[in-house]
């Protein structure tokens, strides 16, 4: 079965989804197809009134459906039906997702959609397993820690994995008994609308999922500052995370989960399995053309292995099949926009200007659309922009070390601490290094998330606050109340 289709022939309605229904809206910001740089739709910008309508719809839905106080198993069943419908809708969802985004359709269908359905089921199964706790008080008293949903949760997601990011926010919040108002990225607004439609079909009460479209300055700001949004869950850049913290501090307090940027190291010791290591590093930087928060963009390798590793990486990074995201044979997608491509290139050129050597790439691909060549830079100092900045593109830097201590020094980033990789056959060294690395996730002899959704994800330092996935994400969507009764 071919997954390819003509993007000009599919209908992509764009508006909000409020109270269980599609709400048409006037488009304002052009949406581009990064695969061929064609502007094909306009994204509306929900203002404070539209955001308020969505919040009131969420509150009304919670009141009418008793979603937060119902038999938890009822939430489980509704969420499981939603996961089934999402999986069954892979063709349409895949098309809607692939056109504006950087995700090749085959990867959306077999990866993003399948994994998102699994994650929804994971959280659905938590609904009747986690709850209030009895407290060991005096016999003539009774005390407990009541676990309660927040009510309305606000969620804001980026463009790089739109379906997956929406799933990370919606699934734990709904399983934990909340309603959600979600603002997807203004660059990739379509798949979240479809997910909301499918939720209604699955029997999730209308109004529990509301989608408001728009940019950060107007819609995002209205959502984070809304006094009846009781908790905020955000994934995006550290700069936007800082702005959101500021807005929340100005407009009233609410707990926040912030999943932010990264600049993750992959530390390769001399005894590492060279072939496996090269494959893991190449896969991690080619995934979504380097536009992944956990992209392992800084290779830190034992000096004696550096040449051999770089040679293997060069071969693997040449083995790409670039193409439009809607073509089923594409394995390597574009950079999200011309603006972002220029940023990737200028960081590469600035690094070259301060001494970096280009082993491969270093330029845009000679084809229509926003494609950048997989790039390896060597001879980079720890001051090089390619080492310090989150490039968010297919750019690897290679730095060498002579001792474990030096490897750890290079791995440490002043700002970020999202993820890290360690490659060695020496178990004692692996454990020592895992303990030393300041990162929210460390992978050993592999790089990248598995389908073990019990493992939470989130950053140290300016890479974030709190976790997505795992039990942590479920608990982050509930608050506790201490109750004590004198009998
Ligand atoms: P971005 O910060 O520009 O935008 C993310 C979302 O926030 C968008 O929906 C945007 O409209 C909104 N937004 C922007 N400014 C806002 C504001 N002041 N108030 C409210 N909302 C605002 O990020 P992006 O370019 O869409 O995504 C790339 C970034 O996301 C990278 O830094 C990447 O590392 C990060 N990311 C992190 C994770 C993680 O799990 N840590 C996962 C994916 C992406």
Describe the structure.
38% of the residues lie in helices and 21% in strands. The chain is built from 15 helices and 22 strands. It has a seven-stranded mixed β-sheet, with helices on both faces. Strands 9-8-7-10-11-21 form a six-stranded mixed β-sheet, sandwiched between helices. It has a three-stranded antiparallel β-sheet with strand order 5-6-22. The mean pLDDT is 97. It has two domains: 7-260 and 464-486, Aldehyde Dehydrogenase, Chain A, domain 1 (3-Layer(aba) Sandwich), CATH 3.40.605; 265-452, Aldehyde Dehydrogenase, Chain A, domain 2 (3-Layer(aba) Sandwich). Nicotinamide-adenine-dinucleotide binds at residues 156-160, 183, 185-186, 215-216, 220-221, 224, 235-237, 240, 243-244, 259-262, 293, 390, 392, 418, 457, 459, 464.
């Amino acid at each position: 079965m071919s997954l390819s289709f003509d993007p000009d022939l599919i209908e992509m309605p764009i508006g909000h989804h409020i109270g269980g229904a599609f709400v048409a809206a006037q488009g304002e910001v052009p949406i581009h197809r990064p695969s061929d740089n064609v502007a094909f739709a306009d994204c509306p910008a929900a203002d404070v009134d539209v955001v308020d309508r969505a919040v009131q719809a969420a509150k009304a839905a919670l009141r009418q459906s008793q979603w937060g106080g119902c038999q938890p198993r009822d939430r489980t069943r509704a969420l499981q039906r939603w996961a089934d419908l999402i999986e069954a809708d892979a063709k349409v969802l895949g098309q809607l997702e692939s056109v504006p985004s950087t995700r090749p359709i085959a990867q959306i269908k077999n990866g993003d959609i399948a994994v998102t359905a699994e994650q929804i089921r994971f959280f659905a199964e938590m609904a009747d397993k986690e709850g209030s706790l009895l407290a060991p008080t005096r016999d003539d008293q009774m005390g407990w820690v009541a676990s309660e949903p927040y009510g309305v949760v606000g969620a804001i997601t980026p463009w790089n994995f739109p379906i997956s990011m929406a799933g990370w926010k919606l699934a734990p919040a709904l399983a934990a008994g909340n309603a959600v108002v979600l603002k997807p990225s203004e660059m990739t607004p379509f798949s979240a609308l479809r997910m909301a439609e499918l939720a209604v079909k699955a029997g999730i009460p209308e109004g529990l999922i509301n989608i408001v479209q728009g940019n950060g300055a107007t819609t995002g700001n209205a959502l984070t500052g809304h006094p009846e949004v009781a908790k905020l869950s955000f994934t995006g850049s550290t700069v936007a995370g800082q702005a959101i913290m500021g807005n929340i501090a100005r407009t009233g307090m609410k707990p926040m989960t912030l999943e932010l940027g990264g600049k993750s190291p992959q530390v390769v010791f001399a005894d590492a399995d060279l072939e496996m290591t090269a494959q893991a590093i190449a896969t991690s930087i080619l995934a979504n053309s380097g536009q992944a928060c956990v992209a392992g963009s800084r290779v830190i390798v034992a000096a004696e292995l550096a040449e051999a590793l770089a040679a293997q990486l060069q071969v693997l990074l040449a083995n790409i099949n670039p193409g439009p995201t809607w073509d089923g044979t594409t394995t390597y997608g574009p950079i999200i926009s011309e603006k972002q491509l220029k940023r990737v290139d200028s960081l590469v050129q600035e690094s070259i200007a301060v001494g970096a050597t280009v082993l491969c790439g270093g330029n845009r691909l000679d084809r229509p659309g926003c494609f950048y060549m997989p790039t390896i830079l060597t001879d980079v100092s720890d001051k090089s922009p390619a080492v310090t900045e989150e490039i968010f593109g297919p750019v690897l830097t290679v730095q060498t070390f002579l001792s474990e201590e030096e490897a750890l020094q290079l791995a440490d980033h002043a700002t970020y601490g999202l993820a890290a990789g360690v490659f060695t056959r020496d178990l004692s060294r692996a454990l020592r290094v895992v303990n030393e690395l300041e990162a929210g996730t460390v992978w050993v002899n592999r790089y990248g998330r598995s389908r073990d959704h019990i493992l939470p994800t989130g950053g140290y330092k300016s890479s974030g606050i709190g976790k997505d996935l795992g039990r942590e994400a479920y608990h982050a969507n509930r608050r506790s109340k201490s109750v004590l009764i004198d009998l």
